[in-house]
Design goal:
It comes from Drosophila gunungcola (fruit fly). By secondary structure, the protein is of the alpha+beta class. Helices cover 38% and strands 11% of the residues.
């Protein structure tokens, strides 16, 4: 078996594509697609779905992005600890 990861084409579920080839495949397959319009995930453009809300609950790229944003917010809004004498721990006396 191949060492490559495979994915399923969002436009034709019978297509099993190596993930590194998926962007090019989607462009070609989209031209022949006659179903309901699919929305493009802004966290990974190869994700094409009918219901974006449901997709974002499971999308690893979205979950990674919000996790990163949460860490950044926590780091930028961190309040410096105060010692018992009222001085900021990071400020020299």
């Amino acid at each position: 078996m191949s060492d490559y990861e495979f994915g399923i084409c969002p436009y034709d579920k019978t297509h099993r594509i190596m993930l590194f080839r998926m962007p090019k495949h989607i462009v070609k397959c989209q031209k022949n697609y006659r179903g309901p319009p699919l929305k493009i995930c802004k966290y990974n453009a190869t994700h094409r779905v009918l219901d974006m809300e449901e997709h974002l609950k499971e999308c690893p790229y979205y979950l990674r992005a919000i996790g990163y944003q949460s860490v950044q917010i926590a780091l930028t809004t961190r309040i410096a600890p105060i010692q018992e004498d009222g001085h900021d721990v990071n400020t020299p006396l």
